[in-house]
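Appendix B, Record 12. Input sequence as logged:
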Amino acid sequence: MIVDTKEKILESADGLFHRYGIRSVSMDDIARELTISKKTIYQYFKDKDELVTLITEAHISKDRTELSEIIANASDAIDELFKLSHCIRNHIKDVNPSMLFDLQKYHPNAWALWLDYKSVFIKGTILDVITRGKKEGYFRESIDAEILATYRVEAIEMTFNEKMFPADKFDFTEVQMMIFDHFVHGLMTVKGQELYDSLIDAKSYESN
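Logged structural output:
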């Protein structure tokens, strides 16, 4: 019962944070969503910051597992990038763009988790796929993997900046996917581009 209640609180808070941003959601909002008292929430969590940190940890763990499975099962670097693009779209389609800003400004522990995940795991993954793509002849030999991996992880964060991409002018998911698409196409040789296009065409055919 205790575990169920704690998980329900985490799940509800997570959903509200994704829809409205972290700062905009209070403990009262979470209690109201679950039709429980705020006092009940504090029986399981010290404060909102602890909730945010635990939810961030859970998302990072889930994303890391999913990305690791894609990497392990991809037949080549192009297949890996193609599957990653769909994974990214699924991850961000319901995200409020203000979430990353809220983490940075109000929740330093959760923000530190994100920075570590970005700079170690995500960047390391990009470095590995670039190295693999070069060996397979799908990516250009002249590419500096360190520069482009750094660019890619910073571009992910940049898309959350509402001053650069205000929500009333840009669709958050489309901004993410456009920048990812630009990054991917900048890596490829003609051989890589042909394979990537064939995967897109096959996916489009399956959807019809």
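The chain has ten helices and no strands.
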